[in-house]
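Incident log, structure service

09:12 report received: a user says their structure output differs between two submissions of the same chain.
09:20 pulled the input from the user's history:
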Amino acid sequence: MADAELELFRDNVRRFVEAEIVPHYEQWEADEIFPRSLWNTMGEQGLLAVDLPEQYGGYDTDFRYSMVIAEELQAANCGGICGGVIVHSDIVAHYVLNNGSEEQKQKYLPKMASGECVGAVAMTEPGAGSDLQGIRTHARKDGDHYIINGSKIFITNGQHADMVVVVAKTNLEVPGSKGTTLFLVDADAPGFSRGKNLEKIGLHSSDTSELFFEDVRVHESAILGKLDAGFIVLMSELQRERLSLAVGAVAAAEAVLASTIEYVKERKAFGQAISQFQNTKFTLAELATDIRINRSFVDECMRDFLAGNLDVATVSMAKLSASEMQMRVADECLQLHGGYGYMKEYGVSRSFVDARIQKIYGGTSEIMKEIISREILK
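09:34 re-ran on a clean worker, output below:
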């Protein structure tokens, strides 16, 4: 589609966010969860899984359209919703699209596009975060079924999820992640339960949950991809996931810088606007430069992704650089607000606490450095 159509879509998304999300967002942050009905509303407006093929409820657009939604949510300082939407639309939906059977696609994807079915990925465990080899959740074969036992933590969309992609060990005889399988588990399955909605320092309106699996029985047709090949499926979608996070990081940084520029023009100290102090000018210059460099790199990664040429090391660079940059920008912008930056009344405080997780989820900065260094040293 033409760039003009992309910008028209952006305008529609922006109007939706301003009308349907921003007026309620402070309350949702206080409630520490946004309402389940928002998923249905976004689905009705065509804002979920937009780049799915039309036969599965999407609009057959390219990845840029999905990222417009992420960018506009971040631009409005609504990161708590952005993270959940990315997991649903850009991770879970594409796990199913690219690795699922036709039956699985027909069962889940149209309802994911409409908001009837919310998706989550149950990967992280209390003793296994970035280290997938430490996963203890296991699935035991029982005839033509598997029985899943284990627990997961820090699961985005855990409270709202209707379907969960569960990472489990199916072969305990092989080392590491080689015996890992993905299962599509419906939330109404006997033995599945949700723990409490976890309290976080940021992204308050995003539900982040513990999930428990106690003798959860699923048919072998619930396997996503191939038996004992779950790690391959997870790795195959890393570019999309990490590029999504990088795009969101740049958009969030651009937004907090824009609001800070307005603030320093209006705020006065020692008889003049603080925008006139050399420290303010130099700080803003550095931040604007940092953001622009990352924007250019992320745009390059987007072009490579659309062309099918984005490799894991490069997207890891983008995720590392953009998330670290977002944190620096939020920190410096808060500093320019002085004491007011520490008050909830000013959006920069939310930008700051919401930015911190970007260096952790989707692969920590340290894991990104490990991946990049392997490519450099091979």
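09:41 both user submissions now match this output. Likely a transient worker issue. Closing.
09:42 reviewer note: The chain is about 50% helix and 15% strand. The two ends are 39 Å apart (CA to CA).
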